[in-house]
Amino acid sequence: FLVEISGTTVTITCPSQENSNYWALDGTSQSHTGSKYVIEDYKSLPTKVTCGESDTQINELHLHARVCENCEELDALAVTGIITADLFITLGVLILVYYFNKDRKGRGSTGSGSQPRGQKVQRPPPVPNPDYEPIRKGQREVYAGLESRGF
Predict the structure, then answer these.
(1) pTM score, two decimals?
(2) Cα–Cα distance measured from residue 94 to residue 117, given in angstroms and rounded to the nearest whole number
């Protein structure tokens, strides 16, 4: 069998002689003669197609093709061209991004939150919190009233 699908039209060519005089779809005989049978508005349902010279010499095909109304057919060359063009465009964008950002590698950002990259300014240590001052020698009497509690 040779099956050709275009949109929702399915064309079936019988493998037997040039002029098949018997065609049946799902067991129902069709009033069609010839080696080709055209199914208009095929609904993508499993179908049993039978063709041949007579009821005794037949060929059977179980057809389950997926069809759609708004499909576009692409050949292998078109698909290869689309994929190749996409790869070249992606590679071009990567090269452009690399060359535009190549010189910025050593520089810091110039945003408002950045600090100057000159000499580092030394800051004084933070002011200690008086509630958490360390115990110094001679000041133990301040903490003498604190005794460990037994649990």
Answers:
(1) 0.46
(2) 30
